[in-house]
């Protein structure tokens, strides 16, 4: 698809009804490859092979986009007419189940795209190393100018094809992410309402419990300072009373004598 030659077509395998099942391709040193007919597009005398990850991604995007579109329409009908609530709930659950199934398939496509990006990065590093090594050989006069230009030309063409595929993989990842966010926005509000009501209930119960808590009063700072002085005053009063009692007793003894 990106300009890389895979090989020569040998023939086809067909079902009993005559429909083409796979196409056999002679890939040189890699031998025979059977490509599913769905991945092939005929343009003139050339057959273009569509990558498997692109076929899977297009299927997921098409089905999820249609499901989200129908879910939006259904929610619009439900908001306009409450009489259809019971009938709409059944269809609504069906669409949500379909979205969950698509999410599982989407996860596999995401992994497939990530693996493909890693393969592209690995191939790009190898090509750049080969180009640099060819440049060293050219500078050391191990290869001729024409040979170096040929190597550089083919390497640049391959890097360009890898760049095109990387851009397309990134675009597919972006579209998948956009549909995932749209799906969350459509299916999340009910959960958020439940969470918000639960949080508000916890807040109200928490405020009530905190309002019933008893707070111990803090001791005033003056009491701690005046306590020693009060104790000292009491001691002085006791000493004065004892001295006055003693003086009264002495005076009574003198009178008796």
UniProtKB/TrEMBL annotation:
<dbReference type="Pfam" id="PF18822">
    <property type="entry name" value="CdvA"/>
</dbReference>
<feature type="compositionally biased region" description="Polar residues">
    <location>
        <begin position="202"/>
        <end position="213"/>
    </location>
</feature>
<feature type="domain" description="CdvA-like coiled-coil">
    <location>
        <begin position="70"/>
        <end position="190"/>
    </location>
</feature>
<feature type="compositionally biased region" description="Acidic residues">
    <location>
        <begin position="236"/>
        <end position="246"/>
    </location>
</feature>
<protein>
    <recommendedName>
        <fullName>CdvA-like coiled-coil domain-containing protein</fullName>
    </recommendedName>
</protein>
<feature type="region of interest" description="Disordered">
    <location>
        <begin position="197"/>
        <end position="257"/>
    </location>
</feature>
<dbReference type="InterPro" id="IPR041461">
    <property type="entry name" value="CdvA_CC"/>
</dbReference>
<feature type="compositionally biased region" description="Polar residues">
    <location>
        <begin position="223"/>
        <end position="232"/>
    </location>
</feature>
């Amino acid at each position: 698809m990106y300009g890389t030659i895979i090989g020569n077509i040998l023939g086809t395998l067909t079902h009993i009804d005559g429909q083409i099942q796979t196409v056999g391709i002679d890939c040189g040193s890699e031998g025979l490859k059977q490509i599913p007919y769905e991945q092939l597009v005929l343009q003139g005398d050339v057959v273009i092979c569509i990558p498997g990850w692109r076929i899977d991604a297009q299927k997921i995007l098409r089905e999820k986009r249609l499901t989200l579109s129908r879910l939006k329409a259904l929610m619009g009908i439900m908001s306009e007419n409450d009489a259809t609530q019971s009938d709409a709930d059944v269809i609504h659950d069906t669409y949500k189940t379909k979205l969950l199934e698509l999410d599982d398939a989407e996860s596999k496509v995401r992994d497939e795209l990530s693996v493909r990006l890693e393969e592209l990065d690995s191939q790009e590093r190898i090509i750049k190393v080969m180009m640099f090594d060819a440049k060293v050989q050219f500078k050391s006069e191990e290869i001729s100018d024409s040979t170096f230009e040929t190597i550089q030309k083919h390497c640049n063409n391959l890097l360009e094809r890898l760049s095109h595929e990387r851009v397309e993989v990134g675009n597919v990842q972006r579209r998948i992410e956009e549909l995932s966010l749209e799906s969350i926005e459509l299916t999340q509000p009910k959960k958020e309402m439940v969470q918000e009501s639960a949080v508000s209930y916890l807040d109200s119960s928490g405020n009530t419990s905190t309002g019933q808590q008893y707070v111990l009063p803090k001791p005033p700072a003056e009491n701690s300072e005046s306590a020693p002085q009060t104790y000292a005053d009491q001691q002085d009063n006791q000493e004065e009373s004892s001295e006055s009692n003693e003086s009264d007793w002495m005076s009574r003894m003198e009178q008796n004598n």
